[in-house]
Amino acid sequence: MLPGMDDMPGKVVIVTGAARGIGAKYALAFAAHGCRVVVADVASTDEISEKVGATGAECVSVHADLSSRVDAEAMAAAAIDRWGRVDVLVNNAARYAGLYRGPLEDIPPQEWDDVMAVNVRGVWNATAAVLPPMRAQASGAIVNISSGTVLKGTAGALHYVASKGAVLAMTRAVAREVGGAGIRVNCVTPGLVSNEASREGREAEFAERVAQRTQERSLPREMHEEDLAGAVLFLASDASGFITGQNLNVDGGTVFY
After folding, report:
1. Is 160 a catalytic residue?
2. Distance CA 5, CA 29 (A)
3. What is the CATH number of the domain that holds 90?
4. What is the 3-state composition of the chain as percent helix, strand, coil, each rounded to the nearest 5?
5. What is the pTM of this model?
6. Containing domain of residue 35, as a range?
7. What is the mean pLDDT of residues 183-201?
8. pLDDT digits over 38-79, tens only?
9. Which one of 26, 96, 100, 160 is the catalytic residue?
């Protein structure tokens, strides 16, 4: 267990987009710290549920398309029905893998709408769904996953960058709105992670992109999924109990923000 995480055992944590990749790593990290975990995704969560269960942690698996408020509320209800509370929401679900990259005027309109539906409306829906139980218990932590592309003004993926910029803005607005209820809301902006989602659809150029990002970093190495878990755990824990409305940039020292 990480230092300062003594409060984590027994907490009820919802991780969206948990079926694979970074979301799966978050779910396993919370499980390793004794949390009870809801793994939610539009894809099958059977594999990650088995892995979480193998750690000895309690786990609930939920199929959820978070562009739907009904699905988001069902996700929160699954936690309430099983454990009677929601302590942490990690808003990780997002459209990213395989998205169009190129001039903004050529972004397919349907892809633009799909990205906004999941990356922005999905965060809104999931947040709205967990607020009633968090308000009732007068506590809670929401950790939103944005992107370092927002801080760099990355070109060639305007729909994705705009959606993640909205996540950062929403973090601050929601923190103001719910702080009086004892709920904290913070954000993480990851750099380029060397994983399947980043490679998908870009295999030919990926090695070059990783090499370039590595040279830009103050800590000159590739970034891996495991590099993000500590930041998310910290913001979910009482160790960050007087921190809200903030962004924690995790990119090996590329952007100082």
Report:
1. yes
2. 12
3. 3.40.50.720
4. 50, 15, 35
5. 0.94
6. 12-248
7. 80
8. 999 999 999 999 999 999 999 999 999 999 999 999 999 999
9. 160
